[in-house]
Batch of 2 targets.
Target 1
Amino acid sequence: MKAELFLAALLLATIASLSAPAAARERPDAAELLVAALSSPATGYEAQGRIQSFAPGRKPRALGMTVYFLPDGRLRREVRASPRKPAEQVYIEDGGRRELYWPALATAWKGTVTHESAADRAARLLALYSVSVSTGGRVVKRATWRLDLRGPDGVLRRAYWVDRAEGLLLKCEEYRPDGSLLRRERLTALGAARPDQGLFRLDLPPDTPVASLTAPRGAAVPGAGFPRWIPDGFLALESRTEDSGRSYVVGYGDGVETFELRQTLGAKPDGGETSGRTVRLKNGGRGVLGREADGSRLTFQAGGRAYAISGEIPEDEMMRVADSLATP
Amino acid sequence: MTDDEEKLTDYFDGRMAPAEKAAFEARLAAEPALERRLRLLRAMRASLKAGAPAMPADLKASLKRQARERASRPRVSWLESLRAALGPGLGCGVGAAFVAALLAVAVKLALPRRHAADPAAAEWKDDAAAAGLKGLWIDDDGRDSDEG
């Protein structure tokens, strides 16, 4: 009888071990997986993808894209309504420069982008959020790990789906401070490729006007600072002064989401909001992260000016904008 | 900013279209003064970036030459020059006005600077890009699937 019981227990243990996925038993370190997900791929890829934007009370909006990656970090992103239609926008990025050509507007935008290593980006995320790893289902037919990044209040702020075999970032979601889904970016088809080097050069038609990617084309106020990095797809769309010329505001947008950079001489923005979470910026200064009705807000001081970044972009992107600010 | 200064900045920042760049490079080859200004701009940017500036040799030589010329002139104090120009009668009144003007400048410099003298100048909107960006996005079912 004892032998039968022992055999039954052994059988159950064997079945349990076989039914558990092998990879789940080797769950990776969350921080290491995050660095891998933010790193350049080991080989070249061509992918189709979709970005979806979600706003309360309206239908989701989406745009399609074709993306080419190279292992050295170069990237070409073509925005198109469908894979068979011509590109409506072409982005080229090499880690140091970002260029956009928009044929319909016959205009190009260029800018020097502050380069950040995957480790730097991961460090910023880990300073802001707690990260956990779990099994993530399949994306573009590949098994994934899911990384959840949560704020100190426990609310999910970002989620990444990372290819188990190669560490490629296949899908990510961003959430508002209240936990509602803000944006989803995912690859919908992925294939190894050796993209032509020429794809990573922007050959503009002669006499194409070139604008700054991050600074407005209006007369900049004396001593104003502009970021060297803004989120993918965003452009400077407007600038204005407020408070009888004391505050200078630049508005950025990507067609569905917006954020503003406000700079005020001396004073604290909007009379001095100080409540919120204190964060450390790259230059050693301190910033305060707070919530607004339509998103988040980061306030900080630099070079005798008070800055406020507010809008619908995630807090870590606000910090990256702040860290890239070229203050006078 | 003059037209040439703007072009120099655009060229230096790589913001020129290929045709415009080629034309500007032809001018640089033909106009040593323009080429020197480009080198000066490069040196200024490098000094802002790296701290210690590497001054172009010809600029250094030019500054030294100017300094030598000044040193060889007879030294006359600015007060003596002013006195000689105004004469003894006017000296006191104009001197007081000069001191008052200096004080006014000092007070102006001590006050915090305002951002923009003309708020309207900073007012700018790229309506075409804003509308174009909106137009890139289409209604979606919000599904999360591999199908594009």
Target 2
Amino acid sequence: MAVVEAIEVLAPGPLTTIQDWGRFGYGQYGVPPSGALDTFSLRAANLLVGNPENEACLEITMFGIRIKALRDVAIAVTGGDLRPFCNDKPFGMWTSSILKEGDILSFRGVKCGCRSYLALGGGFSLPEVLGSRSTNLSSGFGGLGGRALKRGDILSAHSPRLHLKTEGRSLPQVLIPSYSSKWHLRVILGPQDDQFTEEGRTTFLNSPYQVSSQSDRTGIRLAGPSVERRPEVQESIISEGVNPGAIQVPGDGQPIIILVEIVTGGYRKIATVISADLPLLGQIKPGDTVSFEEISLHDAYDALRHFEERILTFKEAISVHP
Amino acid sequence: MLYEKFGYRIMGDRSVLVELGDEISPEVNRRVREFSVSLMKNPIEGLIDIVPAYRSFLIIYDPLKLDLVIIKNRMEDLQKKIGGIEIPEPKTLEIPVVYGGEYGPDIEWIAQYHNIRVEEVIQLHTGTTYQVYMIGFMPGFPYMGELPEGLATPRRETPRTVIPQGSVAIAQRQTGIYPVESPGGWQILGRTPLKLFNPLRSPPTLLEMGDVVQFFSIGEEEFKRWQ
């Protein structure tokens, strides 16, 4: 396959990184999954431009990035609406479009959501490290040199010309998520819900929480009514493995939704966000409000199956009409 | 105490904590290693990752391919075979450390806290062998114990925003090493020139769960030669 230069970064914005579906199987070494926070948008973007759905994309945070096409390429932008423009015209999302050589794509700021995903037809040509192309910023590996993108970076793709024919492929309207600034997340109680008081659990499930500006890819920090733990238990627990979506409550009673850059933790978790709602976590931004609803494990699996069936329907549709 | 029966705690719809005991102890941790290593050697379809820790391990799985009943059955099977399962012997490593000075900015404070001399802090830290209980917090960070009672020290009240790569630190009855520059709240005794994490190596970490570690003191000149 021919690897050719495809995109130049003119301005990186506050945080743009290379992320794929994540890095799994290295938990025993303390290596977190990393990867796209909103995996639905990652998968959709890749499918639109004819990539495998776990291919690496750009994860663009909030605003500010500008890129230039170095040749004709097919791209798709999904996820949060950061008001993408091609040259001076608004650029459509959730669809495969062609950037002509010399075109400049910019993102002017948040309309809704928090992160956009940009897939490049042919995928970014970067080595896998520990089985993934995702960027681990804190330990400095994966992605492009283990760091966020910066001005002057050139990204290459595998045979992007072969993907130009995906132009116009769009995600059906019913599959496109709508993002508000008030989030309703479904959770399963546990693993340590029994170590909070009855009142603490009620507070957690019935209060809106505001998203703090201290949030990042490690966790979404929330501020609101304090979640009370049982008086006989200590502030912290003996450290244990954690998984994205688990909601830990430190001594101050303010919940933190664990995201993808950590694999162990020493605080008790009152509840865990269900798999079908995990992609939403990538679109929650500082200042938004979050509330939680308890559901059963059975309902969580139904929700996940429903979610996957919708993606499968789209995959089947594009394999019939590629 | 080692539990007679596993404790299961579900962490959402795609992971479950398996608890083997209720304390930080070599015995409980050895059992965690036995089970997690044998599960990794004979993975079940749909298993995504395993995160072993002090007294538990987290099983992360694809819920469309695997469910709790199958996981519990597998665990019961493993329990019947335990003792008969062959797992690799842990490594023994000696780790060079330059103590004090700019490399160990908290060593004086630690000495004063325990009302002993800096040399005694070093003697206590190098005079003990430690077991690697788990790797966590960040890639390659080993949680090791037990520190001698006379060196048990609380975390810093205000965590540092920058701790240099290789810093050897203590907190309560644990000692650890920061694999890359990072923020952190542990008290810093010194620094090792060894590289704790290299994602291009297999395995990617210098230390693994179960390894036995002893520190030895080196001078600044020697530290620079190691690098």
